[in-house]
Records
---
Amino acid sequence: MSEPAKLDKLQDILGVTFNDASLLVQALVHGSYLHENPDFTLPSNERLEFLGDALLGLIIAEKLFIDSPELAEGGMTKLRAALVRMETLARLAGALGLGDYLYIGCGEENSSGRGKPSILASALESLIGAIFMDQGFEACRLFVLRLFDSEMGEAVDERLAEDYKSALQEITQARHRTAPSYRIVKTTGPDHAREFTVEVSVNGTVIGSGSGRSKRQ
């Protein structure tokens, strides 16, 4: 596949059409490629990575602040850190197939560089920076929120569950000197839309129950 065709395919995957395609290319250029191709006309993606990292942190922080008023500052800080860590970014970049489009040196190519979490995470941050430079903050924000939608929902659910379970444990430890226990009492629905009912007990006495699409909910 020709380079223009590959870039068109990637833009279709991203749902973003660049006005300046050179910004998209730059976001895909790993430093190792320039070491082996010194005449290449574009710089590496390192500067775009710096910009994308800052934008990503801001966009995720704003989303958590607006959509999760029940989260305290500490909870938002932990959630943002979990969402923007290398492992999460690499997983999302892998889901986009970003590694297939990278410009990397032969050394990295031969050592499975296209699948390295650090390289994939950096490329995704660079891509975010490139979208901002090409189309502005709003387009960049929409891309990030679309990309992180599922990850963010799961992370918020998990954080809240941990916070609520911790709070309940503190109460039961203080009043009854024991921790609560949880039990799944019912699972309904098809595999793709399960609903769980969970009971919580203290000293063998059921004190509450709840249902949700995940155990954490």
---
Amino acid sequence: QTIVIFTSDHGFHLGEHDFWMKVSLHEESVRVPMIIKVPGKKPAVCDSFVELIDLYPTIASLAGLKPSGQLQGKNLQKTLDDHTYQVRNMAFSVSQGGRSFLLRNEQWAFIQYNEDGSEGIELYDMLKDPKQFNNLAGHESHAEVVSYFKARLKEKLKAVRHNDV
């Protein structure tokens, strides 16, 4: 039996935000298709956040192999039986030689340039502004959200750096 997976390594700007190609961590660059067809499984759409690093443990599991327990990726196999299953509550992405970072959850897209934010911070309300036109990071009314994401990013960077894979 054959498992078919369709995906891409990144999205592509076609003039949005005055960008061309993959040059940012905006939605157009980071959102990619992921279709997994497994024989005997019904088609469904899963809205969970996943990352491309989740493919290896998923494929290994589907092939009956046990991947290393030290992987950063998560097995997506449960989503094939339960499309409401949430693999992650947030996605993480890195760009520009490891100097730009994105954390994206259902409501917010948080982009930070440099680990200390010295090159800028962006915050978008993805429910009200899905095309990311209004950067809310500098608004006092969103300072608590920015602080939350700064702390989550610091935790995430620490976690990925202490993984020896």
---
Amino acid sequence: MSVTATKPAHPYVASLLSSSAAVPQSATAWFNTRRAAALERANALSVPTTRDEEWRFTDLTPLTKVQFQPVSTAAAVTEADIAGYAVPEAAARLTFVDGLYAPALSQLGALPKGVTVELLSEALKTRAALLEPHLAKLANGEQDLFTALNTAHLQHGVVIHAAKNIALKQPIHLLFVATRKGAASYPRCLIVADAGAECSVIEDYVSLGEEIYLTNAVTEVAVAPNASVRHIKLQRESGTAFHISNCAVTLAKDARYLAHAVTFGARLSRNNLTVTQQGEGAHAQMDGIALIGGRQLADTHTLMDHAQPNGTCEQVHKTIVGGGAHAVFNGKVLVREGAQLTNSSQQSRNLLLSDKARVDTKPQLEIFADDVKCAHGATVGQIDAENLFYLLSRGLPEAAARNLLTYAFGAEIIDRIPVPSLVAQLEKNVMARTEGGV
């Protein structure tokens, strides 16, 4: 299907879309239709500004001053270059360099029967019926420019499928490596867990240098009845990069979704997570931490949509903000009419390490049912004076005591990730940054 695109509403959108014409058509008609619709929608949308309520704390002007384009050939990256990001516990690893699949750096391993990890291009040829209900449907980009841009460029992606009643205890590692200045990448991941299935996915964004580039990622997760998905998202981009991600999750009856989001990198990052409870008795756990300094801006928006009864959700989001950095958290819990016996809680806890550091936090509850248990809270402060005094009284130097308390604040979230080697990597990173003043 071809679409005669209207003139883009914003010149920067036109520059980002200029490369989408080079994406080849697929043999799958519905896929081409959705890509074309996304292109048309992207042409109609403008870059969000601080006048938009959902973006009022995040100014995208620095992004619009730089031109980004996808690369056509991958940079020369060796196994030694990415050794520091290895996860020995992983059952498989797929590596992408500047948005392009790198087979020499990937290890599919011996996956159990019923678990498949494959490139989107291959899955469209052999498993189109599996993809059609979910791909570019869970995250459709009707109102979000960056989701629409990702779908318009949709070519390189990963499909992970766990068949009925299959449990894969080892995680699947998706490693996205950035190396080139001015590169734009549009990673796409689709995770489908059939009834009773269980799987874990590590979505890991790293950089081998301090180049300026753009990552615009979209992840879609469909969790069937009694299935469970653990989703670990790590953002360790260059300190000058831009990272924008959207994740859309649907939960069927008695499904479970466990999320761990860790944000360390990028000059400007935005992480959107929407979880929709479509079946009764579903459960979500959403942990998040952002550790930023300098002039970094890290923005996290979450929506827990309880559309059915007996749903539960536990969310804890922490930020550690040093230098002149700015952290944003907007967490919304929506309990729809008829979603009785919902039990949902949300905490936003924020630690400021300097006088110039800034946090804007906005936990929200919207409840349209009368038999529910919901709570939220937010705290913003500096290191606890009593705890600091206790450590000083035990002989620790002040700098060491502050570093230890800061580390403990962040490690509480990281320690919940059930991948020991990954926890060790992240804790080492947290300790190094706290000792360096973040």
---
Amino acid sequence: MRTGNTEWRWVQRFAQQFALNGLKPGDECVILSESDSRPELVATSILAAEYLGARPFEVVMRTPANGGPVALRSTGTSLALKGHAGAVAAVSSVPLVIDVTVEGLLHSRELRDILGAGTSVFMISNEHPEIFERLPHDEDMARRVAKSHDVLRSSKVMRATSDIGTDIHVELADAFTAGSTGVIQGPGEIAHWPGGLVLAFPARHRVNGQIVLAPGDINITFKHYVQDPITLTIEDDFVVAIEGKGYQAEMLKSYMSAFDADAYATSHIGWGMNPAARWDYLELYDRSQFNGTEARAFEGNFMYSTGANENAERFSVCHFDIPMRECSVFLDDHQVVDRGRLVGVAAGEEA
């Protein structure tokens, strides 16, 4: 077994989460990694599965070369499987895949075949293990996420606004929706850890409006806080204009211009519900130590994303998740976030 630095407390925490996801003594599971995976996550996952009495085996892919022209980060689109039929068959042969690839399988082309085989995927974000220590499973959050997801599924429109100028309108007909709690809901499902996010992947031709990024909002791909307002104009799903003062707006335009048109399309839209997650943690870790899932999940954020959206048959590897503070979110006439504070069903009230 390849070794990495791990701690007993991490093994215990991972074992708790694996048990919540149904891993039991005697169960076969795959630890899916790649040559660039974080060694401590691989080692901790194997030991935690063995501690539970499960029967893990590893599928280790070679991280493919990046042909450029830019670095790829926080995409949710692992390229490690590369359509390799044998590897896909191997990971689809067990009930559970523990995914510790660098970017994860969430938007990968192979995911449909894996889930379609009845295999569930538990995606561990590429974070320092301490982050998982700080985010224990929260039963009340899981209950509120489930109720919020029920309201989302039955709604026709999501709208988000902010005092600084955000006003985005999303038609939810034919959208794929999800509520992530860090726990898989059943066979052939995927969950990411840490959890605490309710979101929708809109169908084509459903998103219009304006996103205004405010100081303190988070660009997860670049792993920095927004310093000056940046305005994104969205027409028929696509960002058609990026405007703002300062280098960050120019950096965003420059980076996205390296990709095809689908890089500008809407990926998913939702809000965070994890009370243990923090928006202010980025400065406390080196950039290599986090992948931003805590930022995606912090309570009361509204997140707008661009790029990959399998529900709209778009698979761009350019992906921006941007959690925003102090926004308000509405599902039809039901408000779930009020200027960055959970309300309504998201806060535990009846819809």
